[in-house]
Amino acid sequence: MCYHSSITKSREELEAAFDARFAEPQDYQPIFHGNGFTFLRWPVITAEHPKLIQGYHWGLIPFWCKSREAADELRVHTLNAVSETVFEKPSFKHCIRQKRCLVLSSGFFEWRTSGKLKYPYFVTLKSRELFAMAGLYDRFTDQQTGEVIDTFTVLTTPANALMEKIHNSKKRMPAILKKDQEQEWLLGELNKTAFYRLITPYDTNDMQAYSISKRITSRSENSNVPEVLAPHHYEALND
Known about the structure:
The chain is built from five helices and 14 strands. By secondary structure, it is an alpha+beta fold.
């Protein structure tokens, strides 16, 4: 699954790549390592505002959640949405028709299991260009405080050949869109057939990955720094 991502390009590069402008440009800072379980704000483009890049919180909270307590309990399980079941799951099925979004990224992290240990990898496009992951979004209002929280989830697909090797325990990957698919995902009238034509494993030949140090999971060092992306070789992997 995809719970860790990175977006290291400048504000100007993001705006040019996605032909959209930041709603709150002063709030954007590159994220070298973003952990979804912290429910951080992440740059997304929604169907509602296709020319704006906005900060939404990772971990979708459906509009129908009854309380903040229920929302906080649920969002741990809605960082990702399994594409094969998204039309049936209560948290996601109401979003498919009109609440789709682009989740902007320059790369993501996954762990490879070898023996009893796990080793972190950073995964990007070979071009090193920005890309969009297919997402869904919703807006939750806390009935006690009136606080409005905009949230999103990242769709996942079965792994391609590269990700089968890396994410070899679950064999999943984020649903990455090709550049010419982004607007159809965002604004198209998608039935199930069109949905599954778009949401497929990304071409292995256009992706690359390398192992990184375990600083990404360090409890004593900050992982949101450029150094977290540096290649690191492990003898045990024999790569």
